[in-house]
Write a structure and sequence with these properties.
alpha/beta; Rossmann fold; 2 domains; 7-stranded mixed β-sheet; 4-stranded parallel β-sheet
Length: about 325
């Protein structure tokens, strides 16, 4: 097994609170183990264009509390092509880089898997996404912070919903996963969550109206995932349906958007990111390659990247039942 002397680290795809804590942990754990750290700016695009900088311990000072990513991020179309990946690999060889650590979500780790399959270089993926949709890890970096941001916003919106006797449809991120919607609905005391995983023969909107409004509730909060698997759309779609099918109710829509990605990472996300970053260096020392480092039952786990990106991560049915009962 070739000794790893130099590692590269990049952030890719959507930013997530806690990415900087992860970069910090990777940098300092690598230096502690006598490795050189090359920071790659702007994700895979930077890997292709050679946007490299050697990091020292002081490079990551005063970053653990910062949101976003100090390495910047992007979505690279060029990396999707074999020619782009060849440029990236050639840059790594030219800079004597022995291993690559990628912090990102499903798309970013899919790119990492493809790169690792084509070139004989150890690649470690770290789950950095607010969506919490990667298989094999209980939580992803940024999810907890985004969840807290949503709950804070919903608490404020409920004040005006009550004041005006309105139904508010609040759209949250999550790609095609409902973790943010379902858990923020429970935490904020929302009346319902409309999520992709809860698709049944029962119309979720009609069920909510029948269950929630029959108790003379004229103000309600409904959390809606941004993407529904049947293509029905997000909060605007459901609000329009209420206006047409239940015109007796006043409806408002709030789309939280990129507000959910920003802000100071929570204590949990800082700890999670630090543990995963540290573990990624330990994994390389152990000779691991082409795996995602995750957390399960508060223990560090190694998951083949292919499984992490290909397999669906289910929402517990218990959470759907909890919300249904407690929203009465």
């Amino acid at each position: 097994m070739k000794e790893i002397k130099t590692i590269a680290v990049l952030t890719s795809g959507g930013d997530a609170p806690g990415m900087n804590a992860c970069i910090r942990a990777i940098t300092r754990a690598a230096i502690f183990n006598n490795m050189k750290v090359i920071a790659v700016y702007r994700g895979y695009a930077g890997l292709i264009n050679g946007e490299f900088e050697e990091f020292t311990s002081s490079s990551v000072s005063n970053t653990i509390q910062r949101g976003g990513t100090i390495l910047k991020t992007s979505r690279s179309q060029e990396f999707l092509d074999p020619e782009g990946r060849k440029k990236a690999y050639d840059n790594m060889v030219a800079n004597h880089i022995d291993a690559l650590i990628v912090i990102g979500g499903n798309g970013s780790l899919t790119g990492a898997q493809l790169f690792a399959r084509e070139y004989d270089i150890p690649v470690i993926g770290l789950p950095g996404t607010i969506d919490n949709d990667l298989y094999g890890t209980d939580h992803t970096i940024g999810y907890d912070t985004a969840l807290n941001t949503i709950v804070e916003c919903v608490d404020k919106i409920r004040d005006t919903a009550n004041s005006h006797d309105r139904i508010f449809f609040i759209e949250v991120m999550g790609r095609d996963a409902g973790f943010l919607a379902q858990n923020s609905a429970i935490a904020s005391g929302a009346e319902a969550a409309i999520i992709p995983e809860d698709k049944t023969d029962v119309d979720q909107l009609a069920e909510f109206i029948g269950r929630g409004m029959r108790k003379s509730k004229n103000s309600s909060i409904v959390i809606v995932s941004e993407s529904q698997k049947d293509g029905s759309g997000g909060a605007l779609y459901y609000a329009d349906r209420v206006r047409k099918e239940f015109p007796q109710y006043k409806v408002q829509v709030t789309i939280l958007g990129h507000l959910q990605r920003g802000g100071t990472p929570s204590a949990y996300d800082r700890i999670l990111a630090s543990r995963l970053g540290y573990a990624s260096i330990e994994a390389l020392i152990e000779g691991q390659r082409n795996i995602m480092v995750g957390i399960s039952n508060d223990e560090i786990v190694y998951v083949p990247i292919q499984r992490a990106v290909k397999m669906d991560k289910p929402i517990k049915k218990e959470l759907i039942d909890v919300l249904a009962v407690l929203s009465m």
